[in-house]
Write a structure and sequence with these properties.
About 50% of the residues lie in helices and about 15% in strands. The longest helix is centred in the middle third of the chain and has 31 residues, at about 130-160. Helix 12 links the parallel strand 11 and strand 12 (about 320-324). The protein is of the alpha/beta class and about 325 residues long. The structure holds 3'-deoxy-guanosine-5'-triphosphate and magnesium ion (3 copies). 3'-deoxy-guanosine-5'-triphosphate (GH3) binds near residues 200 and 216.
């Protein structure tokens, strides 16, 4: 199902991505103040990774927050400092929370190791550290971090896709419903002006019938792009239905909304829309219904209903026109 979802959204399988990358090259921070041990551990890790040794816990905290390591190995017995406290700080800072941590512990540290695991340290190694165990545990943590990052990216992409219309790239109806609801709620007692346009292409069935459904899709994309060009960034432009677009104009009154609608109507009529298969571009006109929020409106649907009725009047009056 994950593979299916990622294919659908064109983002690649996060698991495949994460495991492919674990050929490694991780950036590892080694917080260790025993020179001999630091060199031995770093020597083993450096076959596959870039290692930074930092004996001072305060400096290590700063480095970790700035440099973005894939993993930190922290000695629990730093001279005069509790390594567990450093682990706890690394787990609580926003900048370092996602960085995997491995504790380096002595046999007598068992109780502290358990405390560390309790507050979220990912793993530990007992001294004397076995080289292969070191590499295996480091690899596991780096893999896990990369997988988590890939998954987070995939989730953000699919959240984004959930509010975007696939054909036109405009926002979809779900987005419109959510944000219009929020605009209504947020306005509260202040109730600033708010206007809605519903745009519907005239005789669009004729375009599909005459040039084919694919040409119809191209016209729809061009139409959506042109509408977007003639609206402001603060306006919500959403694909509402088949060849209908809703534009929400925050803080616009009826006069202003009519001017904007008339400008869009003109710009659609002004130049025909090119399509791949046809030798000539296709002329298009649009009818637009305009409505504003009324003081007694309980919810945004009321305003959209009036815009829809206005659109119906524009169609009945001969199309290619704006009706309030
Ligand atoms: P009117 O002037 O009354 O609006 O006439 P119309 O032909 O445009 O009628 P209507 O708006 O009711 O029909 C819209 C048509 O748009 C119906 C449907 O086949 C077509 N359509 C809806 N979605 C798509 C789409 O994504 N792509 C294409 N090519 N056509 C679509
Ligand atoms: Mg219709
Ligand atoms: Mg139509
Ligand atoms: Mg329609």
């Amino acid at each position: 199902q994950r593979a299916l979802a990622s294919r659908e959204f064109g983002i690649g399988d996060p698991l495949a991505l994460a495991t492919a990358e674990t050929g490694l090259d991780a950036r590892i921070l080694l917080v260790e103040d025993r020179p001999g041990s630091a060199e031995r551990l770093a020597g083993a890790l450096r076959q596959h990774h870039a290692v930074t040794i930092e004996p001072d816990p305060q400096a290590a905290l700063g480095l970790a927050a700035e440099a973005g390591f894939d993993l930190a190995l922290v000695s629990l017995d730093l001279d005069g400092f509790d390594g567990l406290r450093l682990c706890s700080q690394l787990r609580s800072l926003d900048r370092t929370r996602a960085m995997p941590l491995i504790m380096l512990a002595e046999e007598h540290d068992r109780a502290r190791v358990v405390r560390g695991l309790d507050f979220g340290v990912h793993d530990f190694l007992m001294r004397p550290v076995d080289r292969n165990e070191l590499l295996a545990r480091a690899r596991t943590q780096v893999k896990r971090k990369r997988f988590t990052e890939a998954l987070r990216g995939a989730m953000q992409a699919s959240l984004q896709m959930a509010v975007i219309d696939g054909l036109t790239g405009l926002h979809n109806r779900r987005y419109l419903d959510n944000h219009l609801g929020a605009l209504f709620a947020e306005a509260g007692a202040r109730r600033p002006a708010l206007a809605a346009l519903i745009l519907d292409i005239d005789h669009f069935k004729g375009i599909n019938d005459g040039y084919g459904h694919e040409a119809g899709d191209e016209v729809l994309r061009g139409f959506a792009e042109r509408v977007r060009q003639h609206t402001r960034p603060v306006d919500i432009v959403a694909r509402y239905g088949g060849e209908e677009i809703v534009v929400i104009l925050p803080e616009a009154g009826l006069a202003e909304a009519q001017i904007i609608a008339e400008r869009i109507r003109e710009r659609v009529e002004a130049a025909p829309f090119p399509v791949q298969r046809a030798t000539r571009s296709i002329p298009v006109t649009v009818s637009i219904g305009v409505a504003v929020r009324h003081a007694e409106d309980a919810e945004p649907g009321a305003m959209l209903k009036r815009a829809d009725l206005a659109l119906y009047r524009a169609k009945a009056a001969g199309r290619n026109r704006v009706e309030p």
